Amino acid sequence: MTAQPADAVWDAIYGISRFAALATMAELGFADHLKDGPLSSDQLAERCAAHPQSVRRVLRELASMGFVRSVPEGYEVTEAGLTLTDDSPRSVRSAIRLVREEAYWYAMAKLPETVKSGASAFTERYGPGYHYLAAHPETATVFDDYMARRAVPFAGGLEAACDFTGVRQVVDLGGGRGQILSAVLGAHPQVSGVLFDLDRVIPSGREAMAAAGLADRCEFVVGDFFEGVTAGADVYILANVIHNWSDEDSIRILSNIRSAMAADGRILIVEIVLPDDDSPHVGKDADMRMLALLNGGTERTRTEYQTLLEKSGLTLSEIVELPGWASAIVATPI
């Protein structure tokens, strides 16, 4: 069939239907039920306590997307579908579950209103994102798992791409469960770490670092990087932090680190760096989420990061590409 001008519009519209099928698979645990072998749609519905005919229709859509496939016994999960199991090291189930949250859908649906007013409709209705998570612990658990899973592709990449020779202490600001810090400490026995985050996050970070056998080399600090950070470290890591904040707030965070860091210290800012042209880029999709969910949060280009750093008393030394769309923006004192 000849391509039509509106084809891209229809693909975006029907993409919502495909996402809804994936959200059903993730929320009802289809992949976990299918990972040990094929099931008929009726058997799967029984295990999920779901309506059999509705399950059959969703499976038909998922099969067309490549997450399950038809076999004589019913349906089996594919390699792509296994990424929606809880126990897979490549699991992205929490990402799907987070996006299907009612408040998230509200924010995306209200993007036109956000663009008109310049203020996030989500924030207007629910308050700041981290306040929302504090008030909704079940969502916070999904969010924390999503952030941990999201860090996996670039945690090892950061350790491999950046030189930690001679580094004595690394502070991971907003480090969550410490995936990145664990990779650094695991590869460099001479390094001690500080995991710096909110009080609701630190317990899970402490547990994860203990499971990795690294708790004895890590200090756990509850803090607010708007007020100040651990002083005197050689390296400060900010992963998926700066894009959450306006330029003014970002400069405040970076200036606090600049005041606290060693004279020859570095900041490693792990973020998506947008291209300056109109080429497609996953960061532009992410930027729509930033716009919808946060007042002031934004993905940025190299030039925009360079400006932020200069206003914070820092200089952009280099940008190192990492796996998983992210880059390490290396900043040093001016």
Folded structure, characterized:
It holds the Pfam family Dimerisation. Keywords: Methyltransferase, S-adenosyl-L-methionine, Transferase. It is a single chain. The chain is α/β, with parallel strands linked by helices and 334 residues long. The chain folds into 2 domains: 86 residues, Arc Repressor Mutant, subunit A (Orthogonal Bundle), CATH 1.10.10.10; 230 residues, Vaccinia Virus protein VP39 (Rossmann fold). It is 49% helix and 16% strand. The protein contains 15 helices and 11 strands. Strands 5-4-3-6-7-11-10 form a 7-stranded mixed sheet, sandwiched between helices. The chain has a two-stranded antiparallel ribbon with strand order 1-2. Helix 1 crosses helix 5 and helix 3 crosses helix 4. The chain is globular. The termini are far apart.
Helix and strand topology:
Blueprint: H1 7-28, H2 30-34, H3 41-48, H4 52-65, E1 68-71, E2 74-77, H5 93-99, H6 102-109, H7 111-117, H8 121-126, H9 129-135, H10 137-161, E3 169-173, H11 179-187, E4 192-197, H12 202-211, E5 218-222, E6 235-239, H13 247-260, E7 266-271, E8 273-274, H14 282-293, E9 300-301, H15 302-311, E10 314-321, E11 327-333
Parallel strand pairs: 3-4, 3-6, 4-5, 6-7, 8-9
Antiparallel strand pairs: 1-2, 7-11, 10-11
